[in-house]
Amino acid sequence: MKKDSARDAVVQEARELLVAMEAALLQIEMEGPSRDSINAIFRAAHTIKGSAGLFAFDSIVQFTHQVEHVLDLVREERLPLNAHLMSLLLQCGDYIGELVDAIECNQEAEEPNAERRAALLAELAEVAQTAAAPGEAIASEPVRTALRFASDALADANAGGMEVDAALQAAADYPYWHLSLQFNENVLRDGLDPLSFLHYLRSLGRIVAILPVEAGLPEAGAMDAESCYLGMEICLASDSTRQTLEDVFEFVRDDSRIDILAPQSPLSAYATVLQRLAREDAARLVGQWRRLALFSEVQWRSLGAATLEEAAAEAVPVAVPVAGARPRPLDERRAQEQKFIKIEVSKLDQLIDLVGELVIAGASARLIARRRKDSQFEEATQAIDGLMEQIRDAALTLRMVQINEVFQRFPRIVRDIARDLDKDIELTMTGSDTELDKSMVERLADPLMHIVRNAIDHGIEPAAERIAAGKPPKASLRLNAMHESGSVLVEVMDDGRGMDRVRILEKAIAQGLAAPDAELSDAEVYRFIFEPGFSTAAQVTELSGRGVGMDVVKRNIDALQGEVAIDTEPGRGTVVRIRLPLTLAIISGFQVVVGNAVFVIPLDMVVECIDMPPRQSGSHIVAVRGEPLPFVPLRELFDLPAREQGRARKSLVIVQYGQLRAGLLVDGLLGECQAVIKPLGRLFGKVKGLSGSTILGDGRVALILDIPHLVQHTQQQEQGNTAAYAERSVAAAP
Amino acid sequence: MPLTYSVQEDSLLLTVSGGLTIFQAAERKPELLHALSLPQTEVVLDLAGVDELDTAGIQLLLLLRRELVNAGRRLEIGACSPAVLAVLDLLQLHERFSPAVEPA
Questions:
Q1: What residues 60-89 of chain B have any CB closer than 8 A to a CB of chain A?
Q2: Residues A29, A69: one domain?
Q3: Where is the STAS domain positioned along the sequence (chain B) (predicted)?
Q4: What interface predicted TM-score (ipTM) does this complex get?
Q5: Residues A658 and A727 both lie in one domain
């Protein structure tokens, strides 16, 4: 329902604002306070309060109000923004985040942590107490407002070509606020209902009179039922400040006309309100004002509205007395083009699903064209293919987001952990504009967080130890992301103490993960880090060392079809590399056939295809241009029936994953295709070497090979083989 | 049926039920405006079955009223649900939708 979509909007917006607020706070911490960043923080808090207020999430409103109050004091330079206040504000931001979470779960009625809230509020109040006495600027605020208002009115009068009438400059009797609103056409589509503003206004005071203005409604035929055409003239009795009233409309201010007249504004301001209205509406408003006796008779005459009023009584058409119709500000701002639109993820997914189906349907059309040997038909399908590929790519890029969505959380996380552990760390982030699939970005956050925590806790030494080791006391931690051969590489680099190979190996042997006499490569040794329950930390700290974490990292990355590797140098630092595929939805594939089965290899990973060179039977290594290359005979791997005698020639498809290469032995090559990846059922979840399935143009099912797994498989086998080969040669020697 | 027409003597009775909000506005608009093509001078709205009404709904009612009035006809609300009543109260629109003379 509407409330729910609005709720989502509030939650999402609040989260974005909290991120902005945090970024501004951290920037202040790095570069010292600046007016811009203080304003940014204030705006964020203020906007959160405003949108929460719209939906009566009182808990947030009240809490944020206190934060805003303190921020206001900072903004007026009555409070210094010191380290204590910074930390307090960050914590308040966190707590607002918790309140937002509660809203998301429909649990806003319960306070997530009443104790914490009370403590934070008490601290805020304490800080606010220390504020300097209000300066002169504050005292003069109402005066300035009044002055500005008067000059506005004057400008209006001049613009209208009227002679400046002293009477019009005089304050009117009108003892209430007057709000003159014309909403932006899209306000309803944006999920906001002007009625909710009225409800909110009622909580700020009493609506004395209200007049819906319907002149904006176009002809019946031209009226779009989902656009908002209504305006409102509201007479409001309230003690609120102008700011409070303006805040009510914070979210519709863009493209909407929100005029708020203070009580006893100059007469000319009310004249302007009347001039703006169409005759019918103006007459109604005059009637209303008359009934409420808002102006004295003299004022009525000055308003030049007497005629109007008569018109109202007699229902006779009379021209509005003051000429010079002002253009509607609505049209003026229309020109500003919108740069972004928000789309529901489910709609995008649907689009990508459809594109997937289109790709399959296109493939079947191409197949028919080829069979019929109709050159015109084939040409047409080729053109369609080209377009389809573009549509596919465009659809997929829609899901792509910058990895910055994850990276941006790290300045705060690193700051907090570094503080807790009393370490001095400089975080640099590069390649944060690297794009990858939205779903991956979300699922990358947790593993990255673990890795960064580990790096700070275990990797980076305390300052004293660093100085002793001849390193600068300030440690450096770097997050980097980049595209590399059809995958995304995310690196976490620190310049800490590195990992102790010997200690890891000892521990692995102690835990029975490795045989005491096994000869293991560095990469294999470091891989033990990812085993469940593995920790070399001598001391269990609050953050890490309990042996929970890195195995979760590995599992999460595996689930994303990714890979994680460690490169470390004792005393110099550690690099953790995460490699992820770009997307999980559609790939360019290369079809091969083994027996009667068709397999698809992701095209990005194919290096070349060659005729199978002669080989030693039983060995799984061939020489390609003088270099040894391990290979996998797919027929044996999947236990497929041998093909009837016929074509003896076999092909080798050379694939590369990361830095590793391997060959796949197949019966035939079928060429490129577009493969829409469909997940394998749960039944096949445990089958290694397959990552999914796809449907071919002719309706047959093809399996997609899990190249990373196969490449690793060859590496393991290679070692086994080398050992076996050595044994064989020994046995053959005597 | 969210919207039905029935003719009673010289007046046309429009019974609306369900929601009358942004979600139904596009669908309801032609149905409501269909009244314009019927001959009866008096059009009465029965909104007793309307459980939700928002600005989009109010706009439609105002549009229908304006078009009818421009054609020399009349629109009044004969019955309304608590939800409709609350909105009419909030916007002080009773007068515009009642048979009493309203300055126009």
A1: 60, 62-63, 66-67, 87
A2: yes
A3: 1-104
A4: 0.88
A5: yes
